[in-house]
Amino acid sequence: MSGLSVSPRYLAILVWSATAAQAADMTSADQASGDHERTNVNSTFFQPFLSHTWPDTTNVGLNTESTCDRQGQRLTRPINLNAGHLLRLSGQPINLSSGIRYTATARAGERSGAGG
User: Fold this and answer.
1) Does 29 fall in a domain?
2) Which letter does DSSP use for residue 52 in this model?
3) Domain range spanning residue 63?
4) Which of 33, 50, 80, 112 is the most exposed place for a label (fewest CB within 10 A)?
5) pTM of the prediction?
6) Strand duo 14-24 + 42-53: pairing
7) What angle do CA 78, 104, 116 make, to 5 degrees?
């Protein structure tokens, strides 16, 4: 498995970044160990996000968690929107947040649409 993380870019208190990973099964069918009946794995994960925090520590974020199964030619693309507020309880910073998810593209058998 390999991965890449792009450094955040700052514009005032606006942050964007992205994470990417590739997973592939490097096992050949003629090897003595392993389950030869299993399906091969070749998937790519990409997660760009955008976040904004106001001076009062209220924050809002938008991201997608795209996963592409290259073996099965399937794409899953949920889009997440969340909002939160940073508070201090006994000096400990805690971010209370909530969000919604919309699945723009789903694999067969999975729910798409709001909450999917």
Assistant:
1) no
2) E
3) 2-24+40-114
4) 33
5) 0.64
6) antiparallel
7) 60
